[in-house]
């Protein structure tokens, strides 16, 4: 039975489509558009898994949600060691850190900022200022790393890069922030944009949605999805 990837456009499930393309996995892609008013997932996607969110995959009798769980599953089942680092290589600690940092620190902070802004918190509120500073700190740390190395784990492209790209590209459609001055990140994104698998992901998964221009590789803060 062919693996099915349920993809919500302009969402973190782009990682899963991209990973499948990088690993050369045979998969069926089911695409869902965000609801017009709420920008949330449609009811037919929510019904697939109790989490009610994307990404979701179905592989035979297995149904999995959560980006990290899906990526670990796909690399374990289909990757044959590709895009990961084994524990006996020198850069394993770097790979492990950046792989988990993307979702554990950077994305979670950015998601919190989205909810705080949606709640109507004043621009001058201390909580909002703390969150914005944390995002700046994350960008600076990431940029310093990418000024030293081509990819997050070192000189080879890994799943850590697949994990982190969404946060500084498509996710900016929901929390617009600029990348001006972050030359390491910009060079990294330029390298990503030339990867055939990333281009195939964009072509297959995102072109039928007109709201929010992708890929989001601009220096300036992009136009937010809510404005379309």
TrEMBL record:
Keyword Cell membrane annotated: no
Official protein name in the record: glutathione transferase
First-tier enzyme category under EC: transferase
InterPro entries: Glutathione-S-Trfase_C-like, Glutathione-S-Trfase_C_sf, Glutathione_S-Trfase, Glutathione_S-Trfase_N, GST_C, Thioredoxin-like_sf
Sorted UniProt keywords: Transferase
Entry annotated with the keyword Transferase: yes
Gene3D superfamilies: 1.20.1050.10, Glutaredoxin
Domain GST N-terminal: 1-82
Entry superkingdom: Eukaryota
EC number: 2.5.1.18
GO cellular component, one term: cytoplasm
PANTHER family recorded: GLUTATHIONE S-TRANSFERASE 1, GLUTATHIONE S-TRANSFERASE-RELATED
